[in-house]
Structures are given as C-alpha cells and as structure tokens.
Amino acid sequence: MAIRMPRIIKKSPTVGDVPKGHFAVYVGEKQKKRFVIPISFLSQPLFQDLLSQAEEEFGFDHLMGGITIPCSEDVFVDLTSRLRN
Questions:
Q1: What is the three-class DSSP state of 11?
Q2: Looking at the 3D structure of the chain, how many domains does it have?
Q3: What are the pLDDT digits (tens) for 48-82?
Q4: What is the pTM of this model?
Q5: 71: left (phi over 0), alpha (psi -120 to 50) or beta
Q6: Mean pLDDT of the 9-36 span
Q7: Are 28 and 66 in contact (CB under 8 A)?
C-alpha cells in the first residue's frame, strides 16, 4: 500500500534543492527522512510545539543542514496535512 504525501510537503533527497520560502526538516525515529516544507508553518502553534520539542531534544546545531523533528514520519505527515487545511 502506497503512502500518499500531501502536496505541500515533499521528501527531498538532496541538500541543495530547497526552494525560496521553504526549509528542510529531518523526521523519523530510527532513519531520518528529509522533507521540504513552507516557512508559513513556522507561525502555526502545532508546528511551534514540534520546534520546542526539537530544541529540547537536539538543540539548534544541526549537522545535516536542517532541523531534526523528534516524531515519527506518520505523525509528521498527519500534522502537516492539518496545517495546510
């Protein structure tokens, strides 16, 4: 069964392909997957809660070139689909 990804976010395999108005985050528990999401998410309370959790768990020194979000990929996809509605 295929997982349908919302159009607003996308998996992004390479570091240099972040379009203007977007930023990269890494999501996952064991294996991190990279997503490119719009900066408009930064103003959303649900996303701000995730960023607070990320700061507590990882700080803001990210060697991978994006913020690591401490949640499962499924939870992240569900949350971001609610943010775009």
A1: strand
A2: 1
A3: 988 888 888 777 665 666 788 888 999 999 988 88
A4: 0.70
A5: beta
A6: 78
A7: no
